[in-house]
């Protein structure tokens, strides 16, 4: 046994948290996925897996003024196969799209996360894109939400079931009588794991 291997064994014995992985040895696979909300009336495309997802929107479009000035899409995911004794939470969420904001209008966006087994424990964050100038603001946007008060999954058992993860993204346009549009193209996220 070389010096590095001996050091790793000594550290593992004395300080197991320092060398323990921050992810399960077996990651879960998605067993069911569904969508709800007026922003995903046409089923979004989904690729990747539980830990490296990519959602492609087909109908996420908001207009102000009008009946669609608030639009949302919520994804519901069930997964199993993770190593026993772990919990997972959403850490970061990114939505890419495009805004066109008339003077005095704004886009406020929200990400809300919860597990169906403990829906009262919901983590929500919001952000805003404003047009405070006198000209129309047209730009591609990447809307990042960092979840700080994390909603954690149930503790995985022998089947590695992570519970039903629900991620709701909503965009709302407001203004002073001007006009605005917002379209979301795709969404992805990062997860965080902990022992339980």
Automatic annotation (TrEMBL):
| Top-rank taxon, per record | Eukaryota
Question: Which InterPro entries does UniProt cross-reference here?
Answer: DUF4360
Sorted alphabetically, which Pfam families does this protein's record hold?
DUF4360 (PF14273)
The record's keywords, sorted A to Z, are: Signal
> Quick check: keyword Cytoplasm in the entry?
no
Span of the signal peptide: 1-21
- From the Swiss-Prot or TrEMBL record, give the protein name: Secreted protein
Which species is this UniProt entry from? Lasiosphaeris hirsuta
């Amino acid at each position: 046994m070389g010096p590095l291997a001996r050091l790793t064994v000594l550290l593992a014995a004395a300080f197991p948290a320092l060398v323990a992985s921050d992810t399960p040895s077996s990651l879960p696979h998605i067993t069911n996925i569904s969508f709800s909300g007026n922003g995903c009336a046409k089923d979004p495309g989904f690729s990747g897996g539980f830990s490296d997802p990519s959602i492609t929107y087909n109908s996420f479009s908001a207009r102000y003024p009008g009946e669609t000035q608030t639009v949302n899409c919520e994804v519901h995911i069930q997964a199993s196969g993770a190593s026993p004794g772990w919990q997972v939470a959403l850490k970061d969420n990114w939505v890419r799209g495009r805004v066109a904001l008339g003077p005095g209008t704004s886009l406020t966006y929200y990400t809300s996360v919860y597990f169906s087994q403990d829906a009262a424990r919901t983590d929500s964050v919001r952000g805003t894109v404003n047009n405070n100038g006198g000209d129309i603001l047209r730009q591609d946007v990447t809307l990042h939400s960092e979840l700080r008060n994390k909603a954690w999954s149930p503790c995985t058992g022998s089947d590695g079931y992570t519970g039903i993860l629900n991620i709701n993204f909503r965009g709302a346009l407001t203004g002073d009588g001007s006009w605005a549009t917002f379209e979301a193209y795709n969404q992805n996220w990062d997860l965080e794991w902990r022992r339980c």
